[in-house]
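#structure-requests
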Amino acid sequence: MSVAAEKYEDEVLGLSPTKVPGTIAEAIELKMFENKMTQAKLAPEIGIGQSKISEILSGKRKPDISFLKGVRKILKIDADFLLDHA
């Protein structure tokens, strides 16, 4: 029943979230939330350490090519978006 109510709110009432990510960090955090994934789960999937993910998401470190390739593959983030915002 709750799924039907959510679908009705999204499709008929137009209550779905409309905020579009403006940065790579925002896009990654949104996709991680949607996939119920933590930094600890994402790190081994893309082959880097959790501290590197944390530093990139906090803005202390710039994302490198291997990181961008990994999040594109695992989180299905558009490559054009990643390149435009890198």
